[in-house]
């Protein structure tokens, strides 16, 4: 059975318009919820940052919350999507390496590769763009 090519540039196809939006919102949700949970419990987040030995934990907390909330919102809206997805992919890999590097612990192992998978999805966004239903698509 042959597979027909999926043309992501066909703006008349509702599927090719909807799928990039659904994918961006799905990935963005992880970052937005994570940022909101940090803001809801700043002391716990700062304590966790301190526990891995990072300097300036309050600054790291503020930067992480900013990246997750602003980056997540921009990704969902498709605003400067390739740049935002690049930053979020790098953020995901860096946080995996810093916070989830104890791969002998099954929980940390899962979180490490979850971050790697998120980065992989974001790299697809970098490669293929935001799609038609986005702020970037309106330019």
Explain how this protein is built:
The longest helix has 27 residues, at 14-40. Helices cover 72% and strands 0% of the residues. It has 5 helices and no strands. The protein is mainly alpha-helical and 139 residues long.
Keywords for this entry:
elongated, mainly alpha, single chain
How would you concisely characterize the structure shown here?
This protein has 139 residues and is mainly alpha-helical. It is built from five helices and no strands. Helix 1 packs antiparallel against helix 3, helix 2 packs across helix 3 (57-77) and helix 4 (81-99) packs antiparallel against helix 5 (106-128).
Total number of strands: 0
Give the strand content: under 5%
Mean pLDDT: 93
Shape: elongated
What is Rg?
A: 17 Å
Query: What's the order of the H and E elements?
Result: HHHHH
Low-confidence stretches: none
Distance between the termini: 38 Å
The percentage helix is over 70%
Number of helices: 5
Provide the structure class. Answer: mainly alpha
Q: Summarize the main sheet.
A: none
């Amino acid at each position: 059975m042959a597979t027909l090519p999926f043309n992501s540039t066909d703006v008349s196809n509702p599927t090719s318009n909807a799928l990039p939006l659904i994918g961006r919102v799905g990935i963005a949700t992880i970052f937005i919820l994570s940022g909101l949970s940090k803001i809801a419990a700043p002391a716990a987040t700062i304590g966790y940052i301190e526990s891995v030995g990072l300097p300036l934990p309050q600054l790291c907390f503020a930067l992480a919350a900013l990246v997750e909330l602003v980056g997540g919102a921009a990704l969902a809206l498709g605003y400067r999507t390739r740049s935002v997805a690049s930053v979020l992919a790098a953020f995901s890999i860096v946080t995996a390496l810093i916070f989830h590097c104890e791969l002998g612990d099954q929980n940390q192992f899962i979180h490490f590769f979850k971050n790697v998978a998120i980065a992989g999805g974001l790299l697809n966004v970098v490669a293929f763009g935001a799609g038609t239903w986005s702020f970037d698509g309106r330019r």
